[in-house]
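pasting for the record
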Amino acid sequence: MHAYAAVFKHFEQDGAFYCYPGQSNKSVTAMYNLYRASQVAFPGEDELRRAEAYSREFLCRRRASGELKDKWVIPKDLPGEVAYALDVPWKASLPRIETRMYLEQYGGADDVWIGKVLYRMSLVNNELLLRTAQADFRSFQRQCKLEWHGLRKWASRRNLQAYGVTSNSTLRSYFLAAASIFEPDRATERLGWARTAVLAEAVSSCLRDGRCSRADGMLRELTSGIHLRNDDNPAASLVHALHELIGLLAFDNASYNSLLDAWKQWLAMWTAQGHEGSVALLLVRTVEICSGRRRSASATDDGQAHSLSEYSQLEQLTSSVCSKLAAAGTGDGDDLSPASVEDAADRHRVDLEMQTLARCVLRSRSSIDAVTRQTFLHVARSFYYVAHCSARTVDAHISKVLFEDVV
């Protein structure tokens, strides 16, 4: 990510990649690490594109034949590491899923390295690191269970099930937020993401099936000063719930107005397009406002103008990627197969836009806060994850990340 892609040229010969010249028996761990590194590619980095294709083909062939033992190391679960990397590419992988899987695959002090003799690398593989990581993850799970209990009660009190919101869809919304933004001190951002996703689902369902008035009617109600709950009027009830949510998430008048504007913009896209707008941008804006990182600004100088231009590019890329992925629906685990995206050209556009978004987020020089840039990538990857993975896979990940004991 620092213009070093060309270094891979030194390890390529006639379309093949190797660790040293004349290597005849390639290492699984070397190809595995090459595959992981090559997935974080920016547009135009052809070396990484070739490295990804070559290493993936190598790993798939070894996986199919059951030949996943390595000549450099005897790890606890190398087949499991390779399987996860092949089944869930980087652009669809969420941080807390990766961690949970690796806790099962990391062998601690039992991993053995192979040289002229067998030896252990205590600074790389040790029990203290493993126990610390396990304790951290258990703490994360305890916090998640409390947050999930509160979120479920919140959705029930607001009768969101009447608008098509189920317990499973609420849990999935929370999981996507928690698997992306997992730090203990970022609970407000995490719950802001989850609650916003759930309420947006309720509003979308109500508008799609005609139980609510048109989006412009909801927009007028949202702008007016009267927001009473009325169970006989679905639109009024949802607008009331929306204002309650904004009041819950806001920490001052400025943040309240910013959250209100974010919802107005989302509803305005319904009015303009006749179908739901980009929930992705609503989620990004909510997370950033809840964190206090986003504030209203006008381009009063060149620095601010440059920042706003960068921010606009991040929004455009995220909206475009997530809209295409949302249209694809739930995936089948086959890396956006033709069943989930219309054609190869669409898949290529999504991947190219993801590469461009990754470059915007991961580049070292930017006038936008690094955590803010990461929010865009988190949301985009969560959409890619849903489009890529089957419902069964998502449910298995939810169980493992949020509820299953770490042992």
